[in-house]
Structure formats: structure tokens, C-alpha cells
Amino acid sequence: MSKPTLEIQLQTLPNEPGVYQYFDANDKILYVGKAKDLKKRVSSYFTKNHDYGKTKVLVKKIVTIKHIVVETETDALLLENNLIKKYQPRYNVLLKDDKSYPWICIKKERFPRVFSTRRVFKDGSEYFGPYTSMKTVKTLLDLIKGLYLLRTCNYDLAQDKIDSGKFKVCLEYHLGNCKGPCEGYQSEQDYHDNIAAIREILKGNFKDSLSQFKQQMRVHADAMEFEQAQRIKDKIDILENYQAKSTVVNPKISNVDVFSIVSDEGYGYVNFLQLSYGSIIRSHTLEIKKKLDESDEELLQLAITEIRQRFHSTSREVYVPFEVDLGEEIKVSTPKLGDKKRILDLSERNAKYYRMERFKQDKIIDPDRHANRIMAQMKVDLRLSEEPRHIECFDNSNIQGTNPVAACVVFKNGKPSKKDYRHFNIKTVVGADDFASMEEVVYRRYKRLLEEEQPLPQLVIIDGGKGQLSSALKSLDLLNLRGKIAMIGIAKRLEELFYPDDPIPLYLDKKSETLKIIQQLRNEAHRFGIEHHRNRRSKGALTTELELIPGIGEQSIVDLMTHFKTVRRISSATFEALEPVIGASRARKILEYYKK
């Protein structure tokens, strides 16, 4: 498939948070931006009149739009920072400097310090973040300082130095902000218990801390100290909205390549995320056409080799959804939980969105091609002699045997043709007999089509198992249509497809477009039938009460319902309102009935 036009690329963007990248005709990156809603944000570039000349020139140069979908707006902000610093796009002014977002560090020391930093060192210390707001960092550090007494000095508190009395407590000890581990006034175990509690707060588990803040806020409010209460409330709001981790930046993950795959009958879509020092610096999705019936494992193995060569990747570790053989020099991991699994899920999410967009672009560029492909696929999957351009599906609806009805929905070229939908009220069957009801409606439907010389469908789907299918086939036999119309039944529980005179059902791949269209037909027939059934029940419930009134016949009920619309209005109507509609005598009978 050729590269879609800019207009089509805009139409198929997702309404999700993420980062967008603009490229020129030479595939050179022009601009990187973030968005809460990718489609709205990117479309605004092409619908607004821009005041700045730089933006006008940028928009004229854009030929290709690429994007990376992430889970949150915070992740989008961090990913934007990574990509701008990596590629230095010409039209990005901000974020090109060497500044980075802040982290909170628990220093690897005997008595660890806790502080904010913008630089990450691989020295065994723990880093939490990055944070998109320094205000959040300060709030967390204030929270920690208010709950736990920690040292702020940078002394080397080795046990022998403490025992020798090398250090003396400072002003922080006398102010009550530190317990004095430098003079041995606080044990190492007690200090590490505090650090363990702080670690939970930084991971986002600060339920107890929040309850303490709320208690303080109430105390200040009761004491009419509203400014102090508001300050604490601001901290509560920040902490409640605080996100402990980012998927796109993680210092625990170093240089690694991440691959995932989604596939259908014709294509495989392999997404590649490249991480450098824990930050995503590239996303690319490769579309592979299946030549034979290759498995996902075979496609992924081929794609990994091609992508790594294209982008000159030298990473010695890859994350994949299942085991693949990449040789002895590369470590292959299949994450099941934690941060690594979240990265793999992000890759799969982008592969799914890419596949969805390609389908949308295919439909816009050549809608007939899309329909032709699906019809050809259905013919093969369902073992039909011709493409099912015209499909009809039948479903029965009755609840506790009341008001039995049936529905027939029609799809043409894989899409609903609502003007051809039909309802059936069951006429010859007494009670809830699904088999006899199916036999009746199929007979009535195709007898009428034959009489009116209307075109017959290539495929009929019966919602039900072998019993309903056998009943429908009896009607085809009576009309001499057996063999002229293909008919299958679908059972709900395992999505089994039954064929006439074949005891073994057919099971289609759950990702198959053929199965999805059959399910859509079945669900539409069920919805259409239930809707008609409810209407009949409602109508029956409304008219039954009026029929109980002595002297009120069918025509009077029709006149009343036409005028008043509901039974409730009729029951509360006055004599003066009723008399012009049905006459004085019948009006008195209705008033007497409702008076009782």
C-alpha cells in the first residue's frame, strides 16, 4: 500500500494521549509535540490560521505524521522530552537544552539521604520519577520530612567513625529534624525502617500519610485557620493526582529493544520500541505481508532481524511476548509482570493502533478493495462456492413464551443494509417453540422473495445450533431451495459453525474478520428482534388494561391511545376531555372504572 495522503493520515489518528512527530518529504524530522488527544491536537495545525511565520512554514513542509500512543498525558510529556533531546528537531525551541526532569533519590549509604536530583548515576542508589512538576517533588519531600526524621548531612557514617566520636550532632538534631545517627543516637535498623516506609510513599502507597494530612486539615479548619488548611489541601490534591511511575522512562531498564506483534489473515504488524538508558527514544511499526500461513513466531523473528539492521541497533537484550531464537549473543526476555511487562504492553498497544489505522486508510482510499478482500476471505473461510455479497441472519425472540417474534437482518458487501431488515410475528406456532418458529419465518421470508422475484442471498446464518439449522433446512426443502442458498448455524457458547449434514462443527480463528462479521450479524439480529419483542410487550401491556373496561371496544381503545398517547393520561383524564373522543356513555364507563 502506498503512503496515504496527509488528509487521510489526519482522519485516522487516534483520540488518545501520545506524542506526534512531523516529517518532511526527505523523511527528516521537523517537530515533536505531545497531546492529550492526538487527533484533535494534530488536526488543529491544519485548521487554524497561525500567527507565527515559523508555524506556517512548518505546516507547509509536513508530509508524514508519525505518533506513539501512551497511557497518560504525563507519559506523553516525558516521551516528548526524550525525543526532542535525542533528535533535536529544527522547529522545536523548548526542551533542546541539557536540562532534564527531576527525580527523587534514596542514596545508597549506611544511613541513606533522600533528596531531589536531575542527574541519575548508576551507583546502586534508588531513583523514583521522573516528575513533570518540581512542585510535586517538593510536596513529596515535605511530606517525608514531616513524617520521618532523616539526616541531611553528607558525612560517611561508618560504624567505626561513629564509635570513635568523630562527628557531633548539628542544629538539625536540636531543632528536632534528625535523631542523631552520627553520634549513635539512632540505630541503623530503626533508620532503615523509616526508609522502607518512605520507599512505599514514593511508589504511591501513601494511604496512611494522606489520612494524616486530612486529619491535620480538619484540625486547622476547626480552629478557623483556613490558610493553613488550604495549604494542606493543595498538598492532598497533588498527592492524590500523583503518578508514581512512568512507562516511558525507567532507570531500572537500560539499553534494550522491545518487540511485539499483532496479526490477521493477511498481515503481521511488528512494533519496535528502542530504549536507551531507560528512556524510549524510538518507535517504529513494520507491516509484513504473509506469503504463506506463517506463524506469529516466524514473522516476529524475521522482523526483529530486519528492524535491528535498519536502525543499527546494538542492544544485547530484547523483550518479546514469546520465545524466539536470536542466537547466543542476544538475551531474550519474555516479561510477565512489572515494569518490563508494562513496556511490552505499550509496544503491543502501538502495534494495534497502527493496524487499526491501516484498515481505516484502506477503507478511505479504496472502499471496494476492502470489501472485496473481506468477501474473498469469507468465501475461503466458510467453504462457499461464491462470495457472500448478500447475507441474511435469523433470530427468534420470546420471553417466557410471550409475544414470540423473529428478526431477519441483511448485510450487503459486509455492511448492514437496514432498509432490508424484517420483523416477523409468529402466526402458526403456539408457545415457545424455537424450532417451529424458525421453520415458519424462513419459509415465509423466501416464499415471499420468490413470489416477488427478489434476489436470494448467497448465505443464510441461523442463530442457533443443529436443531434450529435443521428446522430452517425443512423450509428450504419445501421451497426447492436446498443447494441454491448456503446455510449455516452458529452456536453462542463456543462460536461453533454448523453445516447441513456435517456433524463436526467448524471453529474459526477468534481474530478472523469472517468470524467478526458473523458475530456482528448475530448480535444485530438479536438486538433487532429484542427491540420488536419489547415493543409488542409494551403495546400489549398498555392495551390489556383498557380491554378490561366493560363496554370499551377495540376502536375506542385505538381512538383513546391516538389522542392521549398513554394509559396513564387516560386514567387521569376528566369527563370533558374524554367525551369528545369516545362519547359521553363510554367516557362515564372509563371514569367509573378508574374511580373504583
From TrEMBL:
Any one GO BP annotation for this protein: SOS response
Subcellular location: Cytoplasm
Major localization class: cytoplasm
Name of the protein in its database record: UvrABC system protein C
Listed GO MF terms: DNA binding; excinuclease ABC activity
Family note: Belongs to the UvrC family.
A Pfam family this chain is assigned to: GIY-YIG
Segments forming domain UVR: 207-242
Subunit structure: Interacts with UvrB in an incision complex.
Task of the protein: The UvrABC repair system catalyzes the recognition and processing of DNA lesions. UvrC both incises the 5' and 3' sides of the lesion. The N-terminal half is responsible for the 3' incision and the C-terminal half is responsible for the 5' incision.
Keywords, alphabetical: Cytoplasm, DNA damage, DNA excision, DNA repair, Excision nuclease, SOS response
Classification via NCBIfam families: uvrC
One GO CC annotation: excinuclease repair complex
PROSITE patterns the UniProt entry points to: GIY_YIG, UVR, UVRC
Underlying gene: uvrC
